[in-house]
Amino acid sequence: MHKISGLIMAGGKSLRIKKLGEKPMILLHDRPLIDYVLKAMADATLIQKIYVTVSQHTENTNEYLNRKAKDHPLQIIQTPGTDYIEDLRYAVKKFNLSEILVCPVDTPLLRGELLDLLVKEFFRIGKPSLVSVVPLRLILSLGLEPTIVMRIDDLEMVPSGVNVIKGDELITGNVLEEDYFKINLKEFAVNINTKKDLEIAEKMLFTSKN
Asked: Rounded to two decimals, what is the model's pTM?
């Protein structure tokens, strides 16, 4: 199985949590959120190169990544910062990315082996887009509030934001044919959109270390 690119989306406005600063640089156990996702990407055996999008909304993140890039192999992409999908298309087109694992910057519980699991499923399914989703009941049991709820096979599911896509089909602007990877793991369930989400993630990480 060949390796694919990893793309971390870190250039958004993050309006719901903006008062805490740029989302990628918000500290979780004394580490910026982006460090957790970078580590997960670096630990994944099926990701060959890491790209990170930044914009005028995340200038501090850009400076931080430029310092890290001196010692870590990653490519920073300056995007317009218009919206998530447009920035994603911009990054894919600029570097002619083919298969890409796309990950938001606010998923600190992810691990490399879990990303590999998603990549393997993408190649097994063979469709242009594989969307990872978690059960709504898991989200609620963790004390989190879903932003989007989807009904898939008569189940209430919540997209995690972690997807694998074919870049050449994304940049056409057409709607991608999707399949769904249903996964009942808290690592895919936690997205940091509010201060409450951050506090929940802090408790979960503390528990896992003790």
From this structure: 0.93
